[in-house]
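Bumping with the actual sequence this time:
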Amino acid sequence: MWSFRWVVAAVVLLALWGCRSQEAQFAFRGPEETGLAFVNAIREDSLHNLMTFFYLYNGGGVAVGDINNDGLQDLYFSGNMLPGRLYLNRGNLHFEDITEKAGVVVEGWATGVTFADVNGDGWLDLYVCRSGKYPPAQRANLLFINNGDLTFSEQAERYGLADTSYSTQAVFFDYDRDGDLDAYVLNHSMLDLQPNRIRPIDSTGHGIGNDRLYRNENGTFRDVTLEAGIRYPGMGLGVVVGDVNRDGWDDIYVANDFMASDYLYLNQGDGTFREVGKQVFKHFSYSAMGADMADVNNDGWPDLVVVEMLPPDNDQRQRMAFPLTTFAYYQMALSTGYHYQYWRNTLQINNGLNAQGKLTFSEIGQLAGIDATDWSWAPLLADFDQDGYRDLWITNGYRRAVTDMDFIRDRMIPLLRQERRLGADSVQRRLIAMIRALYDLARPDYVFRNRGDGTFEDVSRVWGVTDPSFSNGAAYADLDGDGDLDVVINRIDQPVALYENVGARGHYLQLELYGQPPNTRALGARVAVFCDTLRWWHEHQVVRGYQSSVDYRMHFGLGDCARIDSLRIEWPDGAVSRLVDVPVDTLLAIRQTDRRNPPPPMPPSPPQGLLVERSERLPPFRHVEDQYSDFLRQPLLPRTYSQLGPGIAVGDVDGDGLEDFFVGGTYARAGWLFRQQPDGSFTAGPIDPTATLEDQGVLFFDADGDGDLDLLVASGSGEFPEGSPYLLDRLYRNEGGKLRWDPSALPDLRTSSSVVRAADFDRDGDLDLFIGGRLQPQRYPLPGRSYLLRNEQGRFVEVTRAVAPGLQEAGMVTDALWTDYDNDGWPDLIVVGEFMPIRVWYNEAGRLVEVTERLGLARTNGWWNSIVAGDFDQDGDVDYVLGNTGRNSRFRASLREPVRVYGADFDGNGLYDPLLTYYLQGREVLALRMDELFAQVLLPRALHIQTYEAYARARVADLVYEAQLEGAYIAEAFLLESSYLENQGDHMVLRPLPLAAQTAPIFGMLVEDVDGDGALDVLAIGNDYASDVLTGRYDAFTGLWLRGDGRGHFQPVAHVRSGFFVDGDGKALVRLLVDGRVAYLAAENQGPLHLFLYRTSDPLHCRPWPTEATYALISNRDGHTWRQERYIGSGYLSQSSSTLCVSPTATREVAFYAPSEREVERWTPEADQNHP
């Protein structure tokens, strides 16, 4: 009875909570309620049209500021074709238009606006940027000085700020820390009517659209653009200022539209800036619009969001014109000096400084779920629900769908071709009429709630933001004084939108800072708030989003924090104020009481992690690929297959007791052998200078039983056709420490191989081989052939079909592992790959039988890259960690909505055609755009599809005949997350790794008790630079330590603590001993090698595996006993040292066993004197 009543009560409470959670966060307030009647109306005419003025529909901005110091935030909206309006806040969300009375009537095409106390008198002045197709005098920027009586006087010329560029926005900040406000003016250009054209980058400072920097010199501003190093032109639409590297000097991020890359001007502290965008960011948004900078994940480092134009639906994606979609054009842009740029919003997470002082960002917009928000303008990061994490508001919408490909191809281009016959004026009139008749792209704004885990939830509709509009500039402010943030938006052809925040429930703190004159509003101050283990950090800047500036009162959402432990303010001059035991849910006005002359700011010290890079111990080396591109042979590929390496194998080649290693080569450069010297240094060079093949898997093992290590090198890649001599796998015999190729040792297989693994699968005393087949070159997605090779007195015989049915057709194999998952003494085989399930072959006394389905793994198809093993939960059997593509991708996959590829020669021309599909908003859609597909494949069934609109709605069945599909090779992927596979004996359970492991594809992995706590951890590297142009490079990974807890769970450890940092195209990862010390070695495709040692003493003792041993039982001091297997090759293209390393403090003893369960050796690590 009681339990039933409790159930009923729980249901009622859940229902009530559900209703409560669905309450709107915002309430729309129209002009009839607020008095904000301004409409930024646009009309097309002969002067104002998209043919002569392509920024016609870019809209205006909004500035927030208390112009009369009454505590209420006032508003100014800029107008494009009519004067903007100034509204005085009368309280209770009622506003009065005082534009004419205040003397701020602006003629011309106004753009960005900001309030700033330019002259330091304590009253906010107004700066208005102008642009448009007007003479310079009519687009000079305007500075309205506040007279302190609700009137303003325009004095831009007097102050030196009447810039006549085509300006978008201005930022006032103290870049030289001299106490006054300087000005950065963001510009674009109306002189270039082909802004997507690839051209040499002008770094003289005189290029069209170059921004301007003005230094405040005793109240007047001098143009110091060139001497300060602001030398790169662009089409600037967004600018935000902040101290990205935490060195105390404010830096400038510029978001550029069209072809121009974004810029990061890093403040050098001497009055100059250095442009470092390409060094700090892996890629940018292509047509970048607005930008904002704030600490998204509460780690104390400023992150960055930049918005673009990608629609969330396939209909608009396929119909929208995209530049740079061909591989050749894209490569031309890169070779000209432009950076990698992609057609989506970007969320750049600040990684801070690594141990070498290098600053990097990881772009995770797709993982976060904020990458596609239509034609977007203003991103604003603020904590609207006050739960302690900054949410994201994005304005969007466009007045005419001018990028519609059907309109451009079928109507605009044919009309332009008639210009000679019809005359320019007639063509222009007709184009204006055609554009007026186009459909619009009115959309509701997007609002994303920050979940606090690196992802965002689209709550636009739930929070009450549903009004379709053409929104442009926006600002947040506490307009009604109730402590939460409202949002106000400038819109084209619609009245101003004001969204009142009515649903914030968490605690908050507002700060109003007053600095020493002339920087009276303390712009540039840094504030840190501490509550228990939580902290919030923010830099005081007001220019954010697009053409706009926000509330000067800083706002912190505090969630459940009911009392602030301490508050730290670093004032712009470096002075520091501290407050303790600070109340919440209040507005604090804090004045800087004294002005000091502190020492110059110092950059933060590089972190001192557990590991430290010591790559200087290695000879100079960089992996090099030739310039071949698979897209030239198979243009429809989702990625190239000719840049998959390099692999690394570790072993003592010359028997001197020191571990050497081999790095696989390419067609451009043969593989190198690195021989360790007694002092821990290495000598290096090719073992076979003539072997310029694409090396994949590499493996040291004793092939002929003579006691030394031979080397097997598998050849792969998509460059060479099946049967090419360039696909020969090679065995190099060890002859007295010299490696010589034995052409007769292996069968003549000539397939594109990937992984190589050795084990005595038949327990006859020698090592046999598995060689995985990657793909059939130039016939993707057909898988390559995989092989099981039996060792017969040092020669290898292919026995796959006889011994392991189905293994030859395993799939597009990327990695494999010999592992005794059931502890019966016989090595089983797990094989993973692209579009493959996790496939398991059980060893029945020398015969391999597939048991994938029996273990519950039949529907685990993924884009798997790698697999490693360890007894992570210390239950006596081996579990597995698998590297996959991750979630930071345009692709999503599930059992109901897989990624799918259809492969066949659909047009009968002898070439194999892959058609990749994925699900978007519940529909299976083609990954390829229409022009890309139809330029390469003639599909008779698709001849009726003549428009981009029709193609956007087409299914695969609309393009290819049913009979062709029935004969096609079809593969699916249901899982893209890198995962942990728990061995539960008769079945296995798969679960995703933490989100930090999902930011990019994971390749190299290494299982080790990294910190010596007695539990196995995982080191991982990744990224993938081989993707097609539309997908873009996967590049957010910087290497990761997943710290295990001994119960099968992992905690990500940031590089600042681990010291493990590999941010390139990471591939192989191995452990070896260098000068007797534990070392970790990582390789990058087209990059250097990275060698890591422990910063102080090693936490591990290592011992060579006894020759007979295949596993060990490790007894911890806490009573747990766990199993460790010996692997001859483990991880992506990797083979680590043949030693076992354990913690002497956590481990009591180790017992080594032969396959027959016979103990062959016992080891007490603590008593071992022969350790690093």
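The tokens above came from a reply further down the thread. Confidence is low (pLDDT under 50) at residues 1-21.
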